[in-house]
Amino acid sequence: MTLQLRYVAGVSPARWLRAWTERRPDLPLEAHRVDEAAQLAGLHEGEIDLAFVRLPVEADGLHVIPLWEEQPVVVLAKDHAFADEASLTLADLADEPIAPVQDDAAMTIELVAAGTGVAFVPHGVARLHARKDVVAVPVTDAATTRIALVWAVERDDDDIQEFVGVVRGRKAKSSRGQADDEPALSPAKAAKKAAAERRAAEAAKAGKGGKGAKSGGKGGRPAPRTGAGAKQRSRRRGR
Length: 239
Fold this sequence. Notes:
This protein folds into two domains: 3-69 and 145-191, D-Maltodextrin-Binding Protein, domain 2 (3-Layer(aba) Sandwich), CATH 3.40.190; 72-138, Periplasmic binding protein-like II (D-Maltodextrin-Binding Protein, domain 2, 3-Layer(aba) Sandwich), CATH 3.40.190.10. It is built from six helices and eight strands, in the order E-H-E-E-E-E-H-E-H-E-E-H-H-H. The protein starts with a strand and ends with a helix. A five-stranded mixed β-sheet has the order 2-1-3-8-4, with helices on one face. A three-stranded antiparallel β-sheet has the order 6-5-7. The radius of gyration is 28 Å and the shape is globular. It is 31% helix and 21% strand. It is an alpha/beta fold. The protein has helices spanning 14-23, 105-113, 123-128, 158-167, 187-215, 228-236; strands at residues 3-8, 29-34, 50-54, 62-70, 72-77, 119-122, 134-138, 145-152.
């Protein structure tokens, strides 16, 4: 028996797959990327157990857990007049022709590179299909998109709930719905969090090492005092 997972372009499920393999080596999980048009295919029929989808979706008969929001970007040909901009607005792009949208995002971006127009896609999709002849620029006032984890209501068993726990950061011994659940992070935010934790640990280690140095003597003993006060004390002690 295996769990079947599907995910749309822009989702990077590798860290959850690793966590699942460590936690449940008895139940393999097979994951495959699918086109957004087919993101719900097989869920109601029981062929697929779970899916990372891009909202909105028809939620009848499904459990839906919204996860992270995606930054919208516009993909431009590398020689476009706006290609060097740090960010753009919808007003900036109001007169730009739109490249014909294809079911396969890679083909849409291919048309952008060919000069047919620009394309609006989530940042993760642009990153997945990055190429040298196009650039992706954030659009600050465009509507964001959201990734969600979904599964069929009738498929709501312990195995499914355990994978949901992995995605939500639930510890292996935690029960469903316990207070230690953490909101799922996107892969980029998870990497930033891990880097911040490493920096904090290094800073704490450096601070602990510097504490003894400030005391001035071996073993943390204070350094000997010098000056007039020290000489007067020495005379009183007959030194």
